[in-house]
Amino acid sequence: MTNPMTVRSTATTPFPGQRPGTSGLRKKTRVFMEPGYVENFVQSVFNALAEDPEVDFGKEALVVGGDGRYFNRQAIQTIVRMAAANGFRRVLAARGGILSTPAMSAVIRRKGALGGFVLSASHNPGGIDADFGIKYNIRNGGPAPAAFTERIYAHTRSISRYRTLDWPDIDLDREATLAVDGCEVRVFDPLEEYVALMQELFDFDRLRGFLTGGFRMVFDAMHAVTGPYARRIFEDLLGAPAGTVLHATPLEDFGGEHPDPNLTHAAELVARMEAPEGPDFGAACDGDGDRNLILGRDFFVTPGDSLAIIAEHAQRAIPGYRGGLAGLARSMPTSTAADRVAEALGIPCYETPTGWKFFGNLMDAGLCTLCGEESFGTGSNHIREKDGLWAVLAWLSILEETRQPVSGVVKAHWRRFGRSYYQRHDYEGLDAATSTEMMDELRERLPHLPGQRLGAGEIIRADDFSYTDPVDGSTSSAQGIRIFLDDGSRVVCRLSGTGTEGATLRIYLESYRRDPVEDDIQAVLAPAAHGIRAMLHLEQRFDREEPDVVT
Fold it and tell me: What CATH number is attached to the domain comprising 376?
């Protein structure tokens, strides 16, 4: 049925601070709720897209969905109206407004869409007094590159009008198609494309036999977006018992919890896995489903080890990678475990800045198959985002193939490749100006650091990481300070751009041992941790003696 509507061009003025970061535009929810705030940003994206002479909205599809947090549905309604008013041929809105970030990438790629809006603040808390975000993903399914986000930002600073429709809200809870003045608006099943893609990559018959043959797992969806996906895959298709998926219903405030799958915020899952008769395998995903936590019985797998182990076993355990791996990639702060696997496989391993868009370039060029970040993100070239449930299925495939417990798989990897003792220390909610000043001072000291002591080692090299993209030649500088010690340790410091309040300092500690013993990781890394805290004068600057989160 066609409903003629009135396109309305509304005068507006710019809002300050609408520059998208690595993960889009993130602010407090109440900021996004200000009249015209979402409209200004979305119109700026459309204006930036329209600058490309090869883009004709009248021939293109746009996807929209989010992680279900507070204000998700309202923002979707706004974007649907604006997309129709701006002349898109087709708008695909996820049923219930629920669409994980990996599923968004899959839908864009499989439906040939121009791109899509991901409504999420990822692992950040949700609620009217918490966080919200909008990220635009491009035609390859990945996050918009820096050059495009800067074009968006330029438009947010000069915008004077936005286009929308006088149109009532659509029913997001029922799959249907509605034609509005030449724009086809379809509410679609958010599970269909993603689940089909997982069935193409993994052997669901073998995994079903594994999960119905005595192997016990538990998955914590953290009241976030992966609940419906996990129930469909693990319980419905793979035969795991009902109740395998915890906290499966997405909630606007994630049940008042922090949807970040780490040892601190997934405490209930960790407790289950530490119980004497606990499950064999535990996993969790974050707010929008792109991050993952992997646990064995009383055993934690670091994200760097997880990437390396998936790469080590992928060709044997996962049908989708039987043809071999073109290369690996990891973000600079991620442990060097993947480098050693790549060397053994005779393939390159690329070290990139933090941000999935850097992996996207490598994958589009056929240079990289698997990739990962220390912030609990792992993925492959099946999409252009990190993918939490994909990582869980990869681990289940490895456990099915090896018939070893999680701890056995990891320790066998250490025996073959050595071990990177690794931790990330987060200092959250720091004063932004003081944090920036601290990092600037450290940069000025870099040439003078070699020869100085840091913890138990001597500094042999220090730099501010810079990356030249091997595909497009672009250069990204000031991506994090690296300090290398003569005992094989490495310390990395960077300010994170994923929060909405204050600054977060992330300190990454790594010590490689070729012949690892059962050393306590805290004892191995404590000298470097104490040393970098003293070098940065954290206690004097911020009155912080210990990090807020250790992962």
Answer: 3.40.120.10
H/E/C letters for each residue in 152-169?
Answer: HHHHHHHCCEEEEECCCC
| Token reading at 315 | 């060709």
Give the relative orientation of helices 101-111 and 388-402 as an angle to the nearest 10 degrees. 100
Are 372 and 335 within 8 A, CB to CB? no
pLDDT tens string 499-539: 556 899 999 999 999 887 767 888 899 999 999 999 999 99
Q: Is the domain of 26 the same as that of 47?
A: yes
Q: Six-digit token pair at 184?
A: 């086809």
- Contact between 48 and 148 (Cβ < 8 Å): yes
Strand 370-373 vs strand 328-331: parallel, antiparallel, or unpaired?
Answer: parallel
Interval 447-471: pLDDT, tens: 999 999 998 899 999 999 999 999 9
Per-residue model confidence as pLDDT tens digits over 208-231? 999 999 999 999 999 999 999 999
Residue at which a domain ends, from 371, 392, 417: 417
Residue 2 lies in a domain: no
The CA distance from 55 to 111, in Å, is 16
Mean pLDDT of the 93-101 span: 98
Distance of CA 433 to the CA centre of its chain: 26
Rounded CA-CA distance 123/129 in Å is: 15
Q: Which residue in the list 120, 122, 306, 380 is annotated as catalytic?
A: 122
Given a contact cutoff of 8 angstroms between Cβ atoms, the answer to whether 390 and 369 are in contact is: no
Residue 239 CB neighbour total at 10 angstroms: 16
- Per the annotation, the verdict on 122 as an active-site residue is yes
Paired residues of 177 in beta bridges: 186
Q: Indicate whether 353 and 461 sit together in one domain.
A: no
Cβ contacts of 501 within 8 Å, gap of 6 or more: 28, 429
Residue for token pair 């995994």: 207
pLDDT for 4: 53
pLDDT tens for residues 352-386?
998 888 999 999 999 999 999 998 999 999 999 99
Q: Which residue has the tokens 């979707």?
A: 76
